[in-house]
Amino acid sequence: MAYPASTPARPDNARPHAPAQTRPQKLQSADAPTVVFISSAGHSGSTLLDMMIGNLSYAESLGELMVMPGEIALGSPCTCGASLLECPLWSRVLARWSQRHGRPPGDIRLGWMAHSQHASRAFRLARAASHGWRWLQLRAGVPALGLAEPVYRRGLEQTLELYDDVAECSGKRVLVNSSKPYLVAVDHARLLGARCRVINLVRDGRAVYASFLRHGFAPRAALHAWQHHYDRALPLFERYVGPGQLLTVRYEDLVTRPQETMSRVCGFLGEPFEPSALEFSAPHHNVNGNDIRFRPRHELRLDERWRRELSASQLEFFMQHAGRTMLRMGYGADVTPPAAPRAA
User: Fold this and answer.
1) Interstrand relation of 196-202 and 59-63 (parallel, antiparallel or unpaired)
2) What torsion, rounded to 10 degrees, do the Cα atoms 218, 44, 297, 171 define?
């Protein structure tokens, strides 16, 4: 029997940090799972952190959940090696969704990142407008989800609904979503309240800048990918995410002091640390993410290729424009504080 689609969450005018009133049934119950949302710029280690939390016996790595529709369409494999429609976890989760909505798994929509691998220019512009509108709403102190653009709103509602199914099928009490967008992180914290934990994952911007350049991005686009995320995310986190909901983790600490860092993460979740966090022996079911998820062995090693790859002029360009953000985040103490950005 097919069930009707979920009712859109009604607008809420709750003050910051207060959970909205409309939430999936499981996420309102006493045994509801904790949802961990990892927010970061790209190329910052989110897949690694996701999997390390997923190594814990009580946690399930979900990966970049927002891109699941595109991954289904492309036939991309889950981290376990099977396609998402044949994966031992996701096949059951998606079957439950299909039965409830009376539609095939390929119809699931989790936001504007659906099918983004082959997105047209028009799609990218529409997505940017949707996210820009949501950012303006949050920045203006008008967070009611009912005012958000419909694709964004429905995607968030279906994502929260999907957590119900994952919790039932996996039996895990901690679910990890490493989709990254800061807007979605803020709305997770608002809608789930104490059931949500946001991890603000940060990495030296010069390393991220070099990585984007390595992947063919133009210098300004590579700069923007790191600076834009944190310049917009940090004020919203301060305003909308409660102190007990937010933890900042440095990539550099994760790979150089993994036990100490993961112990801190587990404490933040209110859960015990387990040595398995560092072992990568458990099967994972991440959707998308860095290709390290397919490696049989994981060596934790600090990646500082930027030190040899970036020229003096590239470093000057980056620090001239993003130096203040770097210093605000505790990086770049080895450089002179930048002057006002020069015209291109």
Assistant:
1) unpaired
2) -130
Question: What is the reported pLDDT for 103?
Answer: 93
Cβ count near 240 (within 10 Å): 22
Residue 148, phi-psi category: left (phi > 0), alpha (psi -120 to 50), beta (remainder): beta
DSSP character for 297?
-
Helices (H) and strands (E) in the chain, counts: 13, 5
Which residues have C-beta within 8 Å of that of residue 230, sequence separation ≥ 6?
Answer: 41, 202, 325, 329
Q: What is the mean pLDDT of residues 180-196?
A: 95
What is the number of other CB atoms lying within 10 angstroms of the CB of residue 46? 26
- How high is the mean pLDDT of the chain? 86
Of the candidates 32, 41, 280, the residue with the CA atom closest to the CA atom of residue 179:
41
- The per-residue pLDDT for 4 is 31
| Predicted confidence (pLDDT) per residue in 56-94, tens digit | 999 999 999 998 988 898 888 999 999 999 999 999 999
Q: How many Å apart are CA 246 and CA 59, to the nearest integer?
A: 18
Q: Measured between alpha carbons, how far is 183 from 325 in angstroms, rounded to an integer?
A: 19
Which of 167-171's residues contact partners 24+ apart within 8 Å by CB, and which partners?
167/26, 167/32, 167/33, 168/26, 168/96, 169/89, 169/92, 169/93, 169/96, 170/60, 170/89
**DSSP symbols for 207-261:** HHHHHHHHTT--HHHHHHHHHHHHHHHHHHHHHHS-GGGEEEEEHHHHHHSHHHH
Neighbours of 145 (CB within 10 A): 21
Q: How far apart are CA 94 and CA 15, in angstroms?
A: 34
How far is residue 111 from each of residues 130, 147, 155, 196, measured CA to CA in Å? 10, 15, 4, 19
Q: Are 83 and 75 in contact (CB under 8 A)?
A: yes
User: Strand 174-180 and strand 59-63: pairing?
Assistant: parallel
C-alpha distances in Å from residue 249, one per residue of 38, 55, 66:
10, 17, 22
pLDDT band at 26 (very low <50, low <70, confident <90, very high): low
Residue ranges of domains in the chain, CATH in brackets: 32-328 (3.40.50.300)
